[in-house]
Specification:
There is one protein chain. This protein is α+β, with helices and mostly antiparallel strands. Helix content is 38%, strand content 16%. The protein has six helices and seven strands. It has helices at 5-13, 49-57, 89-99, 109-120, 125-132, 136-144, and strands at residues 16-18, 26-28, 31-32, 38-42, 45-48, 66-69, 84-87. The protein has a three-stranded antiparallel sheet. The longest helix has 12 residues, at 109-120. The termini are far apart.
């Protein structure tokens, strides 16, 4: 079944309400995925709600860019299109750290720097992982630059 753009927008707008703190944030009240992000289904495809908002109201996202929040209410589910911009994954992570929303992160920036020094010194991933109570996979991802690769010393 095909939906008009107006139908999709109306469905999206039915799932938001203003945050009552004067910030102008519009908070997602629809479904959420397993990671706690708002989830909006369009044409059988699941999108994170803030990404759907950007696509519906601001335009295309291309080139490996992510949707970033200019407000500090991304974790609360803000989907206000005027609070959304695109940027790199590294810029998004910096935003998260600046906003103090990195509470789920097991490692601090300082710990990652220390881990990198230990990797460079030739210590095993197993030994490092044990000292920081993280998985060996996490240490290997840091070593390969797939995790925390945005962090520049």
């Amino acid at each position: 079944m095909s939906h008009s753009a107006e139908d999709v927008i109306a469905q999206f707008l039915a799932n938001i309400e203003p945050l009552e703190d004067g910030s102008g944030c519009l908070i997602w009240r629809g479904n959420f995925n397993g990671k706690g992000y708002g989830n909006f289904k369009v044409g059988g495809r699941n999108l994170m709600a803030h990404k759907a908002s950007y696509l519906l109201f601001n335009g295309d996202i291309s080139g490996g860019y992510w949707v970033r929040h200019t407000c500090n209410n991304g974790q609360k589910g803000c989907v206000n299109p005027s609070h959304l911009i695109i940027g790199t994954p590294g810029e998004n992570r910096q935003d998260t750290l600046r906003a103090g929303n990195a509470s789920k992160q097991k490692l601090s920036v300082g710990e990652v720097f220390a881990i990198r020094k230990r990797i460079a010194a030739g210590e095993t991933s197993e030994a490092i992982a044990g000292d920081y109570d993280v998985s060996v996979s996490t240490i290997r991802q840091i070593k390969a630059g797939r995790s925390w690769g945005w962090l520049i010393e």
